[in-house]
Automatic annotation (TrEMBL):
Keywords: Membrane, Transmembrane, Transmembrane helix
TM annotation in the entry: 87-109
Upper taxonomic lineage: Archaea, Candidatus Nanohalarchaeota, Candidatus Nanohalobia, Candidatus Nanohalobiales, Candidatus Nanohalobiaceae
Protein's recorded name: Metal-dependent hydrolase
Length: 131
């Protein structure tokens, strides 16, 4: 799923969660938005492990607007490292957030976990039904 779609989904989720926790509305919206969109930073680490270099990170900084609007123009079709790596790395991050949320009483960690989980489900939906 493209970054703009993730940003919109994360913002809507943040607004819905913020309504449920109005005393922390701004914080909840911010955390949901940031965690739901910035989780894709793990693609750079995955790309480093798979390809042995930082070409995705370099491409992003050399053409930042393209990386936000059209991810394939940055990573290229032939250099895609596949959905399994991406889904696996997102799942690892989600599990870390879930464990942290379980052992802490910090609502914003739980918000980050929910937003990350929705991001993961969005990616799975796009991989299964849209590609």
């Amino acid at each position: 799923m493209n970054p703009r779609s993730h940003a919109v989904i994360s913002l809507v989720l943040g607004l819905l969660l913020g309504v449920l926790k109005q005393e922390l509305f701004v914080e909840v919206v911010f955390v949901a938005f940031v965690s739901g969109t910035l989780i894709d930073v793990d693609h750079f680490v995955v790309g480093r492990f798979v390809h042995g270099d930082w070409r995705f990170l370099k491409s992003t900084f050399s053409s930042f607007w393209a990386s936000v609007t059209d991810v394939q123009s940055v990573v290229g079709e032939e250099e895609e490292f596949g959905p399994l790596y991406r889904i696996f790395s997102h799942s690892v991050i989600l599990m870390i957030l879930m464990i942290a949320g379980f052992y802490s009483d910090i609502l914003l960690i739980e918000v980050a976990a929910v937003s990350t989980g929705v991001h993961l489900l969005s990616d799975l939906y796009a991989d299964v039904f849209l590609w």
